[in-house]
Amino acid sequence: MASSNGNSSSTAQPQNSGSEGEPQQRRMDQRKRKRMESNRESARRSRMRKQKHLDDLTSQVTRLLKENNQILTGITVATQHLANAESENSVLRAQVTELSHRLDSLNEILNSIYQSNGVSETGQGLDLGSPYDSFFMSPTNLGCVSRPIMAASDVFHCR
Fold this sequence. Notes:
By secondary structure, the chain is an all-alpha fold.
């Protein structure tokens, strides 16, 4: 039968007197206390490791959330830049189209003037006595060629 301290070997030995079992009992109690203290310390270290791991994970979550917000902000800014660039490209395309039409119109006007004066497009057959020749052939009088044509972006309706 087991004793109250959990040691079954003590019941198998005959006890001659109470004084001989006492030191053995004290040693067993001391070992038990040491084991309990060791277990408490081990549990305390385990709780500390667990708490440190939890703190590390919390810190990592905070860092990753901050990084995620920075990335989202960067994406938002990049998306806005893209939208602005696409809008500007649309305006520029419309301006190119408008300027191409204007150039075609101006070329048609010049061709009409040249034909009415007997001048071919290549300049052959130029009548040097014509009063218009010096005017149209002078670079200072060709204002539309030497100066840029400006157009406001609200003139063009791009879709």
